[in-house]
Structures are given as C-alpha cells and as structure tokens.
C-alpha cells in the first residue's frame, strides 16, 4: 500500500460536516456531482464545465456562505434544504484547467494518486480510473476489473493484492460517433443510441451506430474473456455514461458474461467516499 499523505485542506471539518458533504468528479466532458449525508449518497447529478467567470462567481459566493442562497445558481437540479453552507468539497479531476477554478474554495480537498490504497500505480494513471478501482473493490473485493464507458472507454484491473495489473484506453461510443461525422465528407452526425441498432444495417446512420457499438462491444468482450482467464474469481464492474448500452450488448452477445457483470453507474463516488473515510479517520 502506498502512503497516506494528508490531502490539501484549508479548513477543519466540524461535526456537522460529516453529515453533509459534496463529491465532484471533473471529467473530460462534464462535472459529475454527488451529495452525501454521512456515508449515504443522497443524489447524483451532472453539469457542464464552468468557464472562468462563472466559476469565480460561484466560488466567491460559496466562500461567503451563500452556497444555497444569495441569488447564485448552483450548477445542478437538486434541492438542498438540509445542507448547511460551505460543506467540504472532495474533488477528483482529469482536466487541470477546470481544477484551477475550485482551488480558491475554502473547503477544497483534492484527491491524488498518492492518497489511494493501491499498489503499482504509474504517475500518469488517471485519478478517475484509480478511484473507480477503489470503489469497485470496496463493493466487490479484489481482484476486480472496471470497464468505464465514458468519453474515453477504459478498462482497468487489479489483482488479489490490490496491485494494478494494467488496462486499456480507447475512444468511447460518443467520441467515435463524433469523429466519423467530423472527419468524413459524407457521413452524417449520429446521436448516441438508447438501444442496440441492427447489426446488419440498411441505413447509413444505423450502419455507423452498428459499427461503433458492436466494434467496441466485441473488443470489451475480448478483454473481459482474457481477464477472467487470468483471474477467474474476479468481479467485472461496468460504469460510465455508456455502461447501459454496453451491458445490453453483452446481454445479447455473451449472456453468461452479462449475468456476472455488475452495473455501478456512480462508481467513482464510492471511491471518493472511501478515501474521505480514510483521510477523516
């Protein structure tokens, strides 16, 4: 296990803070939020990245204790009547430009690779991938393989001792669809489908969706097969915005594999909660 250095903190948590706190995962495309009461995740939502002006205005209001009032619109839909102003904010970030907006918040806590109870990490491993592993292991134990179907689709696995075995990264469903429309002259923009397209399509749009979904799906299935040969008792956890359609693909093409897969759409927040517990004692 790597060490447990203190995270960057600028304020001491009071007793009430343990009952109300926020987690923020800054992803490639969006901000992913979770509101916790103690160890219970009460609500998850998503919002666009903030520009410098909006971020500065929001954090200035937060630091004045106007997180839930004062005419400042919070970037999300929940109702927060039970939350006191200025709750601790625990952040995992893969977009440095967005992270800079939050560092002036007085209750800012940054999670880094050095904080995680994982072995064999390399310096450029994404904190989102590492936290997903921690969250999956917290729920299912080691060994574990995490398939995160986000903007980038990643596969990340750890062995029975909690040591990183490795993984793979490829463009996710939406990114592949976008790339085809932006880099070809005649192919149309195809929106992310909510159900499986026909494998043998008779329209251009469905042919694009088929190629992307079945192409990604077959690659993921091959990786899972290889992983299960190495670690037969391992859990396989699927998360991310494209996780639902990936699971549908597995149900159609590899039903036994799909039965063993565990869907955890908010997996990274389990990892953040685990690290907060560790750091808060």
TrEMBL record:
Its EC number is 2.7.1.33. It catalyses: (R)-pantothenate + ATP = (R)-4'-phosphopantothenate + ADP + H(+). Its main location: cytoplasm. It is found in: Cytoplasm. SUPFAM superfamilies: Actin-like ATPase domain. Pathway: Cofactor biosynthesis; coenzyme A biosynthesis; CoA from (R)-pantothenate: step 1/5. The active site is at 128 (proton acceptor). It is an enzyme of class 2 (transferase). Signal peptide: none annotated. Substrate binds at residues 122, 126-129, 204. A monovalent cation. Ammonium or potassium. InterPro entries: ATPase_NBD, Type_III_PanK. Its cofactor is NH4(+); K(+). It comes from the Bacteria. GO terms for molecular function: pantothenate kinase activity. Catalyzes the phosphorylation of pantothenate (Pan), the first step in CoA biosynthesis. NCBIfam families: baf, PRK13331.1. Belongs to the type III pantothenate kinase family. This is Type III pantothenate kinase. It comes from Phormidium pseudopriestleyi FRX01.
């Amino acid at each position: 296990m790597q060490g447990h250095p203190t995270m960057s903190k600028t304020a001491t948590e009071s007793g009430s803070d343990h009952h109300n706190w926020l987690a923020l995962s800054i992803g490639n495309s969006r901000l992913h939020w979770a509101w916790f009461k103690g160890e219970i995740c009460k609500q998850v939502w998503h919002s666009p990245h903030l520009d410098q002006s909006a971020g500065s205005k929001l954090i200035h209001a937060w630091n004045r204790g106007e997180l839930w009032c004062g005419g400042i619109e919070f970037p999300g839909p929940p109702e927060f009547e039970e939350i006191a102003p200025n709750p601790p904010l625990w952040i995992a970030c893969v977009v440095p430009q967005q992270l800079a907006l939050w560092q002036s918040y007085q209750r800012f806590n940054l999670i880094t690779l050095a904080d995680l109870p994982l072995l064999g990490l390399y310096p450029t491993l994404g904190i989102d991938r590492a936290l997903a592993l921690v969250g999956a292991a917290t729920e299912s134990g080691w060994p574990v393989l995490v398939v995160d179907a986000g903007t980038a689709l990643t596969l990340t696995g750890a062995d029975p001792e909690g040591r990183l075995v490795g993984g793979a990264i490829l463009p996710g469903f939406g990114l592949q669809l976008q790339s085809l429309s932006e880099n070809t002259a005649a192919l149309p923009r195809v929106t992310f489908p909510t159900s499986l397209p026909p494998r043998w399509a008779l329209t251009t749009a469905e042919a694009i969706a088929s190629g992307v979904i079945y192409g990604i799906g077959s690659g993921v299935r091959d990786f899972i097969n290889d992983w299960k040969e190495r670690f037969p008792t391992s859990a396989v956890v699927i998360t991310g915005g494209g996780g639902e359609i990936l699971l549908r693909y597995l149900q159609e093409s590899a039903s036994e594999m799909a039965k063993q897969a565990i869907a955890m759409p908010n997996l990274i927040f389990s990892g953040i909660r685990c690290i907060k517990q560790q750091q808060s004692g």
